[in-house]
Amino acid sequence: MNIPMVIPAPTATSEMEQLLQDQSIPHLPKVGDIVQGAILSVSKNEVVMDIDGITTGVIRGRELFDESGVSTHIKTGDLAQATVLELENENGQMELSFRSAGHQQAWEELIRLRNSGEVVDVEIVDANRGGLLVRVGRVDGFLPVSQLSAEHYPRVEGGDKNRILELLQKFVGQLVRVKVIDVNEIDGKLIVSEKAAWAKEHAEIVAGYKVSDVIDGMVTGVVDFGAFVEFGDHLEGLIHISEMAWQRVENPRDIVKVGDKIQAVIIGIDGTKISLSIKRLKDDPWKTAVERYTVGQIVKGKVLKINPFGAFVELDEEIHGLAHISELSTKQIHSANEIVKEGDTREFKIISIEPESHRLGLSVKALTEPTLPTTAEGERVSDPALAGVSLAEPVEATPAIAVEPLAVETPPTPVPDQPVTESTATEPPAPSSPTA
Question: Which residues, other chains included, contact 20 with Cβ-Cβ below 8 Å and sequence gap of 6+?
Answer without folding.
Answer: none
